[in-house]
Design brief:
Blueprint: H1 2-13, H2 25-41, H3 45-67, H4 88-96, H5 100-117, H6 121-130, H7 134-141, H8 147-174, H9 177-184, H10 188-196, H11 201-226, H12 234-240
Helix pairs in contact: 3-6, 3-7, 3-11, 3-12, 4-5, 5-8, 5-9, 5-11, 6-8, 8-11
Length: 244
């Protein structure tokens, strides 16, 4: 009996193996413990970084594709660019006196400019993903539902502003926004509001273009974190699937 106990202990400690002896309960217990330990450790840092980069690539690609097309902004109520809030009272008054078409044309033009600018974000987002560190990835993984989107805001806002500004301005000239805005500013109330607020139509549309992109990226990120159907690759399921 003592000899048998010694053999069992040696087997369980991994110091003795014999194909002739049947597997003991302790062997099975040790195997399950090792598997549980491995599960607790979770994916490696490299896998986490790769998974986050893949999630960011997916969310940014979809956001750019959705916004960088005709009606990408205009027909999406969540991100449609409206007349600046400080000027909406003026716009309402213009509608009352039969000038609603001018207001509508201005809003359409601003959204068209945003749609033309959005594709320029693609490479900027790709560059931001490539610069992500292991520490960034760990922080994003353990962060909130839009932690990755916030990472992009922090790392890419300045570059996006610089890239969008000339595109938005050219687009607004091409579609007549500058002319329409100049006409709107002939209204004394509108002119006073714009002057006191140091308002720039270019900056306004650039800012709203970025807001729309980040909004859609955040929505895509939420889906990837929460919805198994949005985890479209094995890597995404490995990193996010266990968080369900």
């Amino acid at each position: 009996m003592i000899k048998k106990c010694v053999v069992v202990l040696l087997l369980s400690a991994g110091l003795l193996s014999s194909p002739a002896l049947p597997q003991s309960p302790l062997d099975g217990l040790r195997k399950r413990a090792e598997e549980a330990l491995g599960n607790r450790r979770g994916p490696s840092d490299d896998r986490i970084a790769a998974g986050l980069k893949e999630a960011l690539t997916v969310s940014t690609r979809k956001a750019v594709a959705s916004t960088g097309r005709v009606d990408g902004f205009l027909k999406n109520a969540a991100i449609k660019i409206l007349l600046p809030e400080k000027l909406r009272g003026v716009g309402k008054g213009m509608r009352l006196v039969g000038m609603g078409r001018q207001v509508d044309s201005l809003e359409v033009g601003m959204n068209r400019a945003a749609e033309q600018a959005a594709p320029a974000a693609r490479q900027i987002f790709v560059d931001a993903v490539s610069r992500m560190t292991i520490a960034d990835a760990r922080q994003i993984l353990s962060g909130g539902d839009t932690a990755a989107t916030q990472y992009f805001k922090t790392t890419s806002t300045d570059q996006l502003t610089a890239a969008f500004a000339p595109i938005v301005h050219r687009a607004m000239e091409n579609v007549g926004v500058i002319k329409q805005y100049t006409q709107l500013m002939q209204n004394p109330v509108a002119a006073q509001v714009a002057e006191t607020q140091d308002f720039s139509i270019d900056k306004y549309v650039v800012g709203k273009t970025m807001d729309g992109l980040f909004y859609l990226m955040g929505e895509e990120e939420r889906k990837i974190r929460r919805d198994p159907a949005a985890q479209t690759t094995a890597l995404l399921r490995e990193i996010f699937g266990k968080k369900q």
